Amino acid sequence: MEIRDGFVGDPSQGAVVNLRESFVLPGLIDSHVHLTGQQNPNSRLEEVTQSDATQAMVGARYARRTLMAGFTTVADLGASNEAIFALREAVKAGDVPGPRIIAAGSSVSIHGGHGDANGFREDVLHLLSPESVCSGPEDCMRAVRTQVRSGADIIKITATGGVLSNTAAGLNQQFSDPELTAIVESAHRMGRQVTAHAHGVDGINAFLRAGGDSIEHGTYLDDQSIRLFKTNGAWLVPTLLAGDFVARIASGPNNFFTPAQTAKALEAGPKMLDMARRAHEGGVKIAFGTDSGVSAHGDNAQEFALLVRAGLTPLEAIQAATVGAAEHLRIASEAGKIAPGMPADIVAVTGDPLTDVTELERMKFVMKSGVVYRAD
Fold this sequence. Notes:
Blueprint: E1 23-26, E2 28-33, H1 43-49, H2 52-68, E3 71-76, H3 81-93, E4 100-103, E5 109-110, H4 122-128, E6 133-134, H5 137-150, E7 155-158, H6 177-189, E8 194-198, H7 201-209, E9 214-217, H8 223-232, E10 235-237, H9 240-251, H10 259-268, H11 272-281, E11 285-286, H12 302-309, H13 314-320, H14 323-328, E12 346-349, E13 365-368, E14 371-375
Parallel strand pairs: 2-3, 3-4, 5-6, 7-8, 8-9, 9-10, 10-11
Antiparallel strand pairs: 1-12, 12-13, 13-14
Helix pairs in contact: 2-3, 5-6, 7-8, 9-10
Protein name: Xaa-Pro dipeptidase
Pfam families: Amidohydro_1
Domain Amidohydrolase-related: 23-371
């Protein structure tokens, strides 16, 4: 991409796209999605009926929906290796319309923890449990190396329990401190950053002390967490939309969560706005991420209004989804800004998002790598 002064209207120079009446931004970045599925009343059944190939096809649908919402880059932080790596390559080859995908593949998890299969009969559990599940430092190093060998761009771990795992195991630390150290060190030695799903403060702080690069969710972070974030230069991806979504489902008349999921959703979801507010006030670096797949794909931009409710200015929220997320994901040379030499990832809306950040929920134009995918 190159940038020239003035308006170039010569058709001999290529197709002319006139966005003079629009507000133009770099393509947006969502640092936390799950493209190969979406929460619904049949989610648990889909775990045992959908093949990896089916999940890749489902992911193609949601990848297109995400792109049309203005997100030209995403980090997919938890999916079947075969499904998400195939989708990543199909998008890269131009066979499937979708955002640029940074893929973790299967999450590294403890046996029986968030990220492992839970809530099925014993023989089914063994069939569904991924290779990335581990116990003990040596086995956790093996899990990281297996993920890198399989094609992971980033290592995602589940440092604490999670809301949507169907087990009453709480939201606190699940990996031991030696396991966390082994994971982070082995990933860094192989050139991969490590991000951790973490709700409980014990798991957040233990992961940051182990040298982890970023925290997803961060629900119960405290003052010590904020100091560790700043000392380590680590990033927080608050996923406020996920917290808002699970709290609404769990407290609504059409709740489709299991009893274990419901209890954790009602506990964690309402706390996330205040968490993000305290982190922002404390100077923690925040990258935009939604956990879409929990909430609906294509609704990603609803996160902006929640970030503003948590105290970010509209500009800070937009920076979290552009230059901030690009720095967090270490892709600043290929995403997050409009500049000479960058891929032409450009989106536009009608109204001023610095005045009303919800304008970003009404995307009008999407270009990715110079190809126009949406022009309303």
